[in-house]
Specification:
single chain, globular, 11 helices, about 25% strand, alpha/beta, binds 5'-O-[hydroxy(phenylacetyl)phosphoryl]adenosine
Length: about 425
């Protein structure tokens, strides 16, 4: 099912014409109402009248997380506070949170985007949508919530945590769609198995998971553990929250809601555009937001774009899964390492290891230390020294093959590492301390 065929299946010319109209309006809106935008545009010698084609967007300066920090808390708002009906926030790199303001229309747009996302996962008015993203300043809970309400489904606003209670509600309320982070979905799946509940005993049919990078291997584990089809949902607070893009049944990238978001992929070093299919940094311009529009916002998320037609019938451009963030990348002994690469290796040992892992990076005698702590699968004994040593060797070997540098492996008993209830914390890097 498709929530909004007119927009999601629009022909390219219609979509591009709408995008241009909205882009021009947005650029004028920020130029007239947000002084930091006006200042930056004046400095680059560009005025709203200079935007006459979609490619003209490249004349405009980028907006960065630093711009949000410098204009904390509400300096990038384009509407007066009496038109702002909701605030959300996410943690910023400098310690100050990034504050986002929504008008009534912005909330309606958000509801529309997430309604499209949930419909992609098969939800409709008869669905029971169990929301285990955290509620509060984080956009996950209330974002999923507003989408489920928009389609008229029954929403269960669980928020995250208390996995036992989550499972009781999943069973008793016969929830059909689960929304949470992929790492929390794994925690729930683990709890379901431990309680002796079979996936087919649950009414769950689909899950809409996002807010953190995850791999195909993790998706497979969640799908089997909960007996569902898992969909990927992407978004970020600054731009709106969840629902910027979502994967359909084809599971081949996430459809971007292009009538609201104009996307570019750039090389983060040269800031030049890269070709479709090539990885780079995702840059988003919100073209219909009122409260806090963002022009050419550098997300730091690494992905690529796909424009080939999707078998689902939607015509919107798709982004690949997010491979990591430019600022998540660890540089260990000079080598670039992404946690998702480590996860891919762990997944190869799915009979021996769980997906619960943590990376420790430190520095000893002027050299970086790098260690992976990962749990043994249920039923495997840590005191079987020969088995554990052999397995350690195999995992270390596979890591070296994947990463090109050595990583020490520490195997732990199943259940040792803390379980994720929201975004999993995968790395402890003490070099920065
Ligand atoms: O995480 C919004 C969200 C909530 C998205 C629920 C999806 C579901 P922030 O807390 O501002 O907002 O974090 C945004 O999370 O820049 C990405 O690095 C990462 N992220 C979000 N969705 C995905 C995803 C929410 N599907 C940051 N895959 C983004 C990989 C994701 N990373």
């Amino acid at each position: 099912m498709i929530w909004n065929k007119e927009m999601e299946c629009a022909d390219r010319d219609t979509m591009r014409a709408l995008q241009l109209k909205r882009l021009k309006k947005t650029v004028k809106h920020v130029y007239d109402n947000v002084s930091p935008y006006r200042k930056k545009m004046d400095e680059s010698g560009v005025r709203p009248e200079d935007i006459n084609t979609l490619d003209d967007i490249r004349k405009l300066p980028f907006t960065t997380k630093e711009d949000l920090a410098e204009n904390y808390p509400t300096g990038l708002f384009a509407m007066p506070m009496h038109d702002i009906v909701r605030i959300h926030a996410s943690s910023g790199t400098t310690g100050k949170p990034k504050i986002v303001g929504y008008t009534q229309n912005d909330l309606a747009m958000w509801g529309e985007c997430v309604a499209r996302s949930l419909t992609m996962a098969g939800a409709d008015k008869d669905s029971v949508v169990h929301v285990s993203y955290g509620y509060g300043l984080f956009t996950g809970g209330l974002g999923a919530h507003i989408g489920a309400e928009t389609i008229g489904a029954t929403v269960i606003p669980m928020s995250s945590g208390n996995t036992q209670k989550q499972i009781t509600f999943l069973q008793d309320m016969k929830s059909t769609v689960l929304c949470c982070t992929p790492s929390y979905a794994l925690t729930i799946a683990e709890g379901v198995a431990k309680a002796g509940i079979r996936p087919e005993d649950l009414a769950l049919k689909a899950g809409v998971f996002g807010a953190e990078p995850w791999t195909q291997a993790m998706r497979d584990k969640i799908e089997t553990g909960l007996g569902i089809k898992a969909h990927d949902i992407y978004g970020l607070s600054e731009v709106m929250g969840p629902g910027v893009s979502t994967s359909c049944d084809e599971n081949n990238g996430m459809h971007i809601q292009e009538d609201y978001f104009y996307v570019e992929i750039i090389n983060p070093d040269t800031l030049e555009p890269v070709a479709d299919g090539e990885k780079g940094e995702l840059v988003i311009t919100t073209i219909a937001k009122e409260g806090m529009p963002l022009v050419r916002y550098r997300t730091r998320d690494i992905c690529y774009l796909m424009r080939e037609k999707c078998a689902c019938g939607r015509t919107t451009v798709r982004m690949s899964r997010v491979f990591g963030r430019t600022d998540d990348m660890l540089i260990i002994r000079g080598v670039n390492v992404f946690p998702s690469q480590v996860e891919t290796v762990i997944a190869k040992f799915d009979k021996e290891l769980t997906m619960n892992y943590k990376l420790y990076v430190g520095r000893e005698h002027n050299t970086d230390t790098f260690e992976l702590a990962v749990e043994l699968a249920e039923g495997l004994a840590i005191d079987d020294i020969r088995f554990v040593e052999a397995l350690k060797g195999k995992v270390e070997h596979a890591l070296r093959d994947m990463l090109g540098i050595g990583c020490k492996v520490r195997l732990l008993n199943e259940g040792t590492l803390p379980r994720s209830e929201g975004k999993a914390v995968r790395v402890e890097d003490t070099r920065k301390l």
